[in-house]
TrEMBL record:
InterPro entries named in the record: Heme_biosyn_assoc_TPR_pro, HemY_N
Domain HemY N-terminal: 26-130
Membrane topology (UniProt): Multi-pass membrane protein
Entry's localization field: Cell membrane; Membrane
Annotated TM spans: 44-66
Principal localisation: membrane
Identification of the protein by name: Heme biosynthesis protein HemY
Keywords from the named record: Cell membrane, Membrane, Transmembrane, Transmembrane helix
Keyword Ligase attached: no
UniProt entry tagged with the keyword Acetylation: no
Organism: Ramlibacter alkalitolerans
Pfam families found in the cross-reference section: HemY_N (PF07219)
Amino acid sequence: MRAALWLLALFGIAVAVALFAGNNQGSVTLFWPPYRIDLSLNLVLLLLVAAFFVVYTAIRALSALFDLPQQALRWRTQQKERAMHASLLDSLSHLLAGRYIRARKSAEAVLEQEGSLTTSGHRPANAAQLRAIAHVLAAESAQALQDRAAREEHLRQALEQASARDAQETRDGALLRAARWALEDRDPDTAMKVLQGLPQGAARRTLALRTRLRASRQAGQPLEALETARLLSKHHAFSEVAAASILRGLAIDLLNGAYDLAQLQRAWACLEPGERLMPEVAIHAAQRLMALRGDPRVAREWLLPVWEAQAELGENLRVKLVCALEEGLDSIDGAWLARIEAAQKAHPRDATLQYLAGMACMKRQLWGKAQQLLTQSALGLHDGALHRNAWRALAALAEQREDASAAALAWKKAAGDV
């Protein structure tokens, strides 16, 4: 459609020119004494148009001629910039491929080319950010080559170049890399100091939180690591299974760091309700409490949610739960004894519950029932420690009723599991 309109316009112009030139009887007379030159008006107009085009073409040609040095300078600058960016890409490619010496040389070539351009008065766009990235790549290569002096120097220059407002993201990246290098050198204190230099927003990013988690674990700060892991879990940085495993391990580490009852109580108070309901955490806390000679009633209080869900636990956890409860059977109250008896009656063939109920009856001096339950459990227990304890208890019961043969047989059974 556009071509058709142009064609119609050209036809209109041609018709207008033909009508004007065909009927134009005008003339132009030039007096150049002693000469007189008569020219038609159409010829004069054509000569004027031709002169305009000749002058215009000459001006353009002269302009292009005088602009050649500037074009050559721009071309050379463009080639240098392309070579600089190519060196930057080469450095990154070599770094990803594990060719650290070449990556370092390419990064240094970027710095040299950028310096040459700046000296010549043609500073590239985002020059500070470009230099900062080149220094970070060189520092990364130096870290891989175990050249810490060069790494620190390139890091310092990278932070100086990235101090501008438009290079804040590059500065954050350089600090995160520096924290990771400190962790690789097993220097968590330095890593924590570097992370503290991040802005508040950058410090809450997933990568920064992951680095903080590693640093706090290396530094032996389980509470700091646990708080960081909670933030990562809220940000969905881990799968549900992985998050539960990490939180469980850190909670156990926090409990292991308590060396008296007051510290253990504070550590338990620092845990969130969901973490206290984890069977492994609650059982370990109760075992630590009993190891520190704490109140068995407090341990049973911590274990109550786990006991109520003990049917859902695996065999290993159920054995650990029974062992934790067994340590405080001397002061067991009637409510807990009723719970144990109800669970044993609900699962009469469960050897682990038979063992716990038998040991509870033994502590309560219910000798006959204790012997019956322990005898049944000794035949079905798979855990070696519980099996030995059951036979030892049976041997003690036999000695109490002065049955030497039964006691000797029970001791032999217990010794046979060692």
